[in-house]
Amino acid sequence: MCGIVGVFLKNSALESQLGAMLADMLAVLGDRGPDSAGFAFYGAGEQDRIKLTLRSAGAEAARKAVSTLEARWGPLEPVYRDTHTVISVPAMKQAALRAMVIAELPELEIVGAGKRMELYKEVGRPTTVAARFGLSSMSGTHAVGHTRMATESAVTTRGAHPFSTGIDQCLVHNGSLSNHNAVRRMLQREGLAFSTDNDSEVAAGYLTWRIREGANLTQALTTSLDDLDGFYTFLVGTESGFAVLRDPIACKPAIMAETDDFVAFGTEYRALATLPGIETARVFEPEPATVYAWERN
Amino acid sequence: MPVVDLVATPLRELNAALHGVRPDSNETAWRILNPLGKHAIAVGLDAPLDVKIDGPVGYYCGGMNKQATITVAGSAGVGVAENMMSGEVRVKGDASQCAGATGQGGLLVIEGNASARCGISMKGIDIVVKGSVGPMSAFMAQAGNLIVLGDAGEALGDSIYEARLFVRGAVKSLGADCIEKPMGPEDKSALANVLARAGVDASADEFRFYASARRLYHFHVDNIDAY
């Protein structure tokens, strides 16, 4: 099972509604993934700064840890949302700050990093998770979300989607990979680190590795058809857009809608049924083994 | 005429009401509003009802249908009219995967395109697709007629038994044991008959005919090395 949703806006007038659109879509696909949910949101960014999404046991622990970080690195503009905190870090300092988090602040986990991407995920019903993080009031250009019914690894926050293994990169997955252990070992030899034994994190890591080696997103997805075995629908977010790929026999359902204002993705049409202008949208199923990508100008 | 708005009425209530129509009832015309892609709308009907659905439906709409005529003024999700026994299901838009899967009888008309595995394991149903069908259509098809006015995707008729496949456009590739055959008089008359029932104005002469080569019916000792 599992459900995937995504919206990529073409019309900036809808940006303030993006969070509400995604929250409704996640709620509908709660039937397909009742055990956990998550989303990556591409909102505002600042020149020469990186947003880090951190997870902690609760807001109190987060405030304490952030004040330790601020004592060392200066103001980090923290925004607290339930168990997640987004801080803004000068790009030049982000590697050193991350090293400090890993070495000295075990109560924090880095969930994602990006110029614009924020990443939230938790165990629980999708409607509850979306409400806890205040998704409905978020504003942005594009977003992807996931409702999980676990098959390959435990029901934990770490095992929830999206997975991010690179700056502004995230992946949500519906399906199950069969060669993820071998691919993970190969990627570990290439220097990538993984925080779970989850198959979808391997898919995210694979794309990060390909992009690091010089491929663009479309090329990375195209080679994944040869290197990843199993059944899958991937929805991948980057700073400038998102992309979709289904396995060669299109084992998992997927449907898309495109209007002059947006491109939307859903595992089922139900998730798209209440979007504005859906009645006149071009609704289609992505072809198997074909990469679809949308980029912001 | 009963009009059921699925925003206000739970789906189970609708299906229970449709199942509860008595055989001698005059209340045979039903209209369903706001389906919003919900699953399992009008499944398991067994009465000569005329059900019109105003909008797109989700999975398995019209599944296991007997006798009823169901019209979807929109697109349909996975498995529309799956395991239909008799009657008619007509989709004005596109259909997702596995349209008419395992259907035993009746007529399924898709006025748009159907995606992958249309008519998978069909067992006697007649399916007319005015647009094109996706890959692996008529996979393991056993009986019935699949008529495609547009094109067919990869591996049409893979592992087919005795169904007839008629395609007016291009076939990307044929699956294992599916071959093009000359259209005999019986095949042509079956094709013309289904086209007429579907209300499609096309001549049987415009189609090409595909069916089983019957080479997979029995184990062939030369293939022993494959096991």
By CATH, the topology of the largest domain in chain A is Glutamine Phosphoribosylpyrophosphate, subunit 1, domain 1
Assembly state (oligomeric): heterodimer
Biggest interface reads: A-B, 15 and 18 residues
Query: How many H/I helices of chain A?
Result: 7
The value of Rg of chain B in angstroms is 18 Å
Q: At the first level of CATH, what is the class of chain B?
A: Mainly Beta
- In order across it, which strands form the biggest sheet of chain A? 7-2-8-1-14-13-15
Radius of gyration of chain A: 18 Å
Number of strands of chain B: 11
CATH superfamily placement of chain B:
Glutamate synthase, alpha subunit, C-terminal domain
The low-confidence parts of chain A are none
Shape of chain A: globular
Termini separation of chain A: 34 Å
Mean pLDDT of chain B: 96
How would the global form of chain B be characterised?
A: elongated
Derived from helix and strand composition plus strand pairing, the structural class of chain B reads alpha/beta
Q: What would you give as the CATH superfamily of the largest domain in chain A?
A: Aminohydrolase, N-terminal nucleophile (Ntn) domain
Strand order of the largest sheet of chain B: 1-2-3-4-5-6-7-8-9-11-10
